[in-house]
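dude i think i finally got it to work??
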Amino acid sequence: MPTFRRYTVSPSLPAPLEKLREIANNLWWSWAPEAHELFVRMDRDLWEEVYGNPIELIARLGQSRLEALAADDAFVNHLNRAHASLTEYMSEKGWFLKSFPTKEGAKIAYFSMEYGLHESLPIYSGGLGVLAGDHLKTASDIGLPLVGIGLAYAEGYFRQHLSEDGWQLEHYPLNDWHRLPVQPVWNPGSPKERLLIHVRYPHGMVDAQLWKVQVGRVPLYLLDTNLEQNAPSDRSITGPLYGGDQEFRIRQEVMLGIGGIHALEALGISATVCHMNEGHSAFMALERIRRVMESKKVSFQVAREACSAGNVFTTHTPVPAGNDAFHPDNVRRFLGVYREPLGLSDQDFLALGRQNGAGDPTPFSMPILAMRTADRYNGVSALHGDVSRKMWRDLWPDMPTSEVPIGSVTNGVHIPSWVSDDMSALYTRYLGAEWRERTDDVALWARVNDIPDAELWSTHGHRRHRLVALCRKRLRLAAERRGANKAELASADEALDPRALTIGFARRFATYKRATLLFSDLERVKKLLGDPERPVQLVFAGKAHPQDKGGKELIRAIVRLGREADFRGKVVFIENYDMRVARALVSGVDVWLNTPRRPHEASGTSGMKAAANGALNLSILDGWWAEAWAKFGWPVGWAIGNGEDAVDDAGDRMEAEALYDILEREVVPLFFDRSEDRLPRGWVQKMKATIAHCVPEFNTARMVKEYTGRFYVPSIEKTGDMLRSDLAGAKDLASWKDRVGASWKDVSIHDVKVDHTELVVGEAMRVHAEVSLGAITPEDVIVEVYHGPTAGSYDLAEGTATPMKLHASRDGIHSFVGEVPTKESGTHAFAVRVIPYRATQSHKFETGLIRWA
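look at this
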């Protein structure tokens, strides 16, 4: 066999079109209408064929067409305007430095297993990746000094096709990185050579090259092990996304976490803060610690304090089984070479990923490792924060669940990426061109009410027509691929009614999302969809994980129903759900349906995208919708149920019944209640309320600014405190924790007294407590009264902590006094507690130690 050597051929752009390269290689074009339209203008049909990939478009356009465009003054002027907009955007100072001018020079590294930036870059599977992509886009918009780290998947996530009977089939096309909107990263010391990093595995080093994705002002670096010098098994590390067994996953996560830190060093980037988007990248914390230990010659404990100050962890999973956890033997095998430099025993190392520490026989949990090596952690909605506190409460034993230090930052969406072109033009006309930069401005979005009802309804009607056209096209292509007969092809061409109330359901097909809940009573559904005077139709889309047979069965059930006579043309399933289909759905449906089994939806963001386009949500009170409903209520949509947890079939039946009632009594009548001018005035008012209330609340501008103010900036500041004066802060905190931990067994509370227990509202309850601290000083602790109303018992579901003051000290006994305010009548309870505290801690429960009376 001959030896083949690779070479790359790039299109030859005429001089007037040279600026196209810069625009094409910056995904800013994907949320900048003028730049996006530039590529559509070059060849609309080819643009669709190449999945909106500008690099592929230019490569396939043909030299003659490029020459013709170069001679077209109108096109060249369009190009120059788009390039000027990009140049201006890239040079803007941004919100971050205006708000935090003293933080110039800080750098935030954002680690994620997947990134959903655009369908032309298939390195994402679903919500986690799309959230990460929107995070990067918004970081760019507000000037946040952030860099993304991920993996360059040769296969990416699968393309979906359905068999004749509706069974999901997976196809994994290979990514040609030279025909994607990415750029190779070259070695600064040798510009003709690729920059390589080297990551240690049990059998030796694995090489990875880097690709750079420019996302506006934010660079995303992707690690790629598909290199000739690597063994086939090592090349596959960056093969499929979420493929393989547990061993394959740990190999990927070593590359993402530890390889990601190597990549930052090779790029000359010193990350002040590292944000772990899910636990997949948690190994990076170990590598950060190792580097500090090596460079500063300090212990694991000191290095851990220094590094955890700058680590942030976001969990997206509301059930323990959904989190990555590895068998100890796999951890020993793949992380043994990293354990030894940390100076930890085998059991101490494994304890970092186990709920009960050393001796715990359970698997090694990546979220637990992340929480043990970070100072700040959060869920992705208020409800998910509550669920996470309950799920991980044993990491902080003896602590009330409500005080477990896992907060929440509710997810959002990057509004400019998800609002349709038609709605975008409408917003520009009535809100002003600056709406894209002010997506979190409540006052600006209130001006939606100034849009004439007829104009808003007409704009939405155009989007529904376009969705129907896309569905028909997709259905026909799928039918042709399966070799369908003429009758089936004709049925595809006539599917759906552009005038009908259109309900959309599109997301990952996991069983807990209950995609078929609406079909619990088929006779009722037939009646709902079969009224010729009030037509209703359903559009479904989504992928099941290749190993999820339950999810695949749900898809097959919907496809089969859609072929029955009563549902044909009214219930459709669109194959190969991706970001392009998602944009069409969230902007074209009238109602966005979401039926998860509460509380398993951590946040959900597709409903936010639909709301930004004026679609109304009809959802279980889970994830973000529980917050939206509690704050805004009926004007922004409908809630299924009252927030109960549906734990069994009986719960499913109850919620299905509630869903039918809402559709029959409220949704359908309101949609078809038309005024004399044939406008659904009541419906349009709900559309306006949805946009005005939900857009400024549930967007990534609000979200990333919240991360910045609550997590990033405090982490930057604490990291500075820890590193200053040769790690004096970290050494002090580690020494203090060792001292307090060693003496904590001697802490006790006794002789708790109150002046009296019968009080009237407004009268303070005075509490006295004697505390023995042993070798610990009063300056090392805070003493509190934990109190609150009860339901007749002595337990508190959620209490309030009131600090007590040191009154006197004598012979090792310290007297503390506190006054508990009374604001409401009823039965209350209290307890006194002691907690170690030092001002340099991120939160008062950092040590996990607590002593109750």
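The chain has a mean pLDDT of 94.
im so relieved honestly
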